[in-house]
UniProtKB/TrEMBL annotation:
Keywords: NAD, Oxidoreductase. Residues 27-489 form the Aldehyde dehydrogenase domain. This is aldehyde dehydrogenase (NAD(+)). GO terms for molecular function: aldehyde dehydrogenase (NAD+) activity. Residues 9-21 have a biased composition (Polar residues). The lineage of its organism: Bacteria, Pseudomonadati, Balneolota, Balneolia, Balneolales. Belongs to the aldehyde dehydrogenase family. The active site is at E261. It comes from the Bacteria. InterPro entries: Ald_DH/histidinol_DH, Ald_DH_C, Ald_DH_CS_GLU, Ald_DH_N, Aldehyde_DH_dom, ALDH7A1-like. Residues 1-23 are annotated as: Disordered. It is an enzyme of class 1 (oxidoreductase). Homotetramer.
Amino acid sequence: MDFLKNLGIENSNPGTSTGQNFLGEDHSEEIMSQTPIDGSEIASVTITSRAEYDEVVEKAQDAFKEWRMVPAPERGEIVRQIGLELRAHKEDLGKLVSYEMGKIYQEGLGEVQEMIDICDFAVGLSRQLYGKTMQSERPKHRMYEQWHPLGICGIISAFNFPVAVYSWNAMIAAVCGDVMIWKGSEKTPLCGVAVQKIIAKVLKRNGISEGVFNLITGGREVGEWMAEDERIPLISATGSIRMGKEVAKTVGARLGKTILELGGNNAIIISEHSDLEMAIRATVFGSVGTCGQRCTSTRRLIVHESVFDELKERLVKLYDGINIGNPLDEDTLVGPMIDEDAVDNMNAALKEVQEAGGELVYGGETVDKAGLEGGHYVKPAIVIAQNDYEIVQEETFAPILYLIKYSDLDEAIAMHNGVKQGLSSSMFTLNMREAETFLSSRGSDCGIANINVGTSGAEIGGAFGGEKETGGGRESGSDAWKAYMRRQTNTINWGDEMPLAQGIEFDVE
């Protein structure tokens, strides 16, 4: 396919790290990338060995010594050029995202656009890494704070956003003066290779060390090396709550820093005062987009009893008209799930919720597509359920939407907040008091809370992340850049005396 060739990926091993191929006589382990569209093989990527991993870390350490001394606006210029290179490859990279991950092409393009947008944001940020000046209580003293880069930023990303979430971290960290080691998902290794090749062009053109941006490949073991490595002061990890707890425990044991973006069990409250047309559109995109495999996917719909039946009927009708199939086809709205395990998890969840008393009102079946027999296609499911069902309390990474009825706002908010996760949330209402209540301290307990906007599709300008078992991390916009730097308070005595703080007298003759 032309887009693979344009990205430098052939049906052979494209290597790892910074575009280098580490294949040696003793190296035989590979990851074979398969498209979820039909299960066919695309290309293989070598798994990073321990020796290669240490080589990458040492190279990153050396690069950091130079990169941290490059003025931040100049670092921003490199990121600006990366953004331009991504623009030039947007269509090809968007197709690769769709081909290797399974999201529809429009979503693949949107993911690359997020990368471009965060590059633009980071360029501006490169001139705004501000510290504060404080008033000293001592005469002829000046106090201020400044921010310094941490060093190596380890980035562990997930299959569902194989390129965008990496860039949220990497481009911000780059202008802050950090260097990156990235381990993407073993389910989407070629997306990482393609991005690495794009970045390598910019670095080579500007005479910048390859060690600023590094790529490693592999599964859990490689991620564990990163989490245990005292040479990596920050680990930013996206994935399951289970994985995040292990990363937090390991990194915390060495007093390292983490940014954790973990599971979401996102809900929309639909009030009797809502604009149902808007609410339904947001619900459908949030629940079936990326085949329910977004951390911000809408999983619970908490609906006022007065509009519950109407909403259910309209959702069933819309779901029945959704075109499921090849994500590269323009008329497709829902592509395949990532693999067979994902389908099995969906089936297990549907079985459990029905055994608990839930009513499956639509979908859940596997779908056979002519010519795509090796793919994993399912009909998105709608289930009438109770919020306290054990399976509803968990995040199932699949297109299952639980419909839950409520009678008053306090009840709705209690159900909304009554889960362990706290990523994204939404309420549809035209009632100002309801809206402000939802956004107040007695309302949503999530890191993201929206009014008349769905749970999915966050912009890069705001800090992205969640509370509770979602991990508490923040990436992307606002002042999330501070997580990639260390704060330093400085005091300068420009007088000829040595007064002490708090008026302490300590005279030495």
